[in-house]
Amino acid sequence: MEDKSFNARRNFIKSSILMSLVPTLDRISISTVPLDESTNFLADMKEGKSIIGGYGPWAASLVKAPQDLSFRNSKWVDSSTWKITAVQKVKELLASPTIEDVPTVTIEKRYEFDGLEIEELSWQLPYGRRTKAVLLKPKGVTKRLPAILALHDHAGKKYFGYRKIVKTSEDQHPLLKEHQATDYEGKAWANEVAKRGYVVLVADAFAFGSRRVFYEDVEGLDYGPLKTAGKSDADPEKIENIEAYNAWSSEHEAVMSKSLFCAGTTWPGVFLAEDQVALSILSARKEVDPERIGCGGLSGGGLRTVYLAGLDSRIKCAVCVGFMSTWNDFLLNKSFTHTWMTYTPLLPRYMDFPEILGLRLPLPTLVLNNNQDELYTLSEMKKADEILREVYAKGGAVNKYQARFYDGPHKFDRKMQADAFDWFDQWL
User: Fold this and answer.
1) Comparing 18 with 185, which gets the higher pLDDT?
2) Cα separation values, 187 from 84, 160, 251, Å
3) Architecture of the domain made up of 105-427
4) Band of the pLDDT at 231, cuts 50, 70, 90?
5) What does residue 300 show for φ and ψ, rounded to 5 degrees?
């Protein structure tokens, strides 16, 4: 039945709103000039196409470089003063969750493989399931060695974490063999750098491996065709179940990111907090020299290197592989090729993306890029290199920064690994 009193109230409100606009409309000058090229925004954009359509040039114009907290900005003369201010602002925007105590580490298993001593470790953070990790070191260590916190990649494969860059037995999962073949030219790079005389720790990152979001812990979302793979009695290591999980977790990434924003934190902030815990665990090892610790990784590991090495001076040497470009590249060209884990809201107002890594000035930093990397545009990778060169030159540390470019797609192949390991050797 129609509610006549409700309709009457609605009509009264509508007429009141319209009446309130009459004086305003009276004062508006309505142009009758046709929208020719002189008044058409799209015509003014010329070549303004982007992944967000005609809005690209406008969005890119919102930030003027060099930004306020860019060391390239002429307002900054002393690097120490700049760094204090810039690091404080970046940490504020990252809003990392507080993890006050270094957790107790459990050694789950010890054995030897590939000429290395290996320990499977775990620890419990204040939230989520236990973090699993592996520590690799040369056999018969009797003195303190330099160490590497090896940061695994993303690759759209959240079922696996640290296992993507290590090899702990000949019985390796076929998906891991395939991944190491395509991304690492058949090498488990964490093993390879350990053989060079380093203690290497690789831990599952937030939302990967042991830290992944488990189906059975989720409510309020329909799994659809993934229900079978999500059953607790299903074999989680079956290829079809892993691929189903990876597909689901890719879709779930937007949910997680939005929820983290609602919790007052960010995905890079969570990464940073958990990577710093792993760094503390590695630093405390009796066989590790805490003054000679480096970090590095490909892709998602390169992203984590940018934030960790940029914001924690315990990292004395950094190698970022396959994750370096500019905010404008993400904005106009490539944000769709990247994880939600990349972005810290509002940070582009204060500095460009490479300048996060530049916060570690004057500590040694190597960036490895691929010329045909489909995740970035080459011109913006080159621009990022120019930015970091300018930062290191202004800080009087030209010899502490290098960037190298290799032919090929997104990868960390044997040649790149050799160059990365040589860089670690040089500085650690």
Assistant:
1) 185
2) 39, 16, 29
3) 3-Layer(aba) Sandwich (3.40)
4) low
5) -60, -30
Residue pLDDT, tens place only, 288-312: 999 999 999 999 999 999 999 999 9
**Cβ partners under 8 Å of residue 34, min gap 6:** none
For residue 140, report the phi and psi dihedrals to the nearest 5 degrees: 70, 35
Model pLDDT for residues 342-357, shown as the tens digit of each residue: 999 999 999 999 999 9
Structure tokens at 390: 């300018």
**What is the average pLDDT score of the chain?**
90
- pTM of structure: 0.89
Q: What is the token pair recorded at 378?
A: 């080459």
Alpha carbon 240 to its chain's center? 27
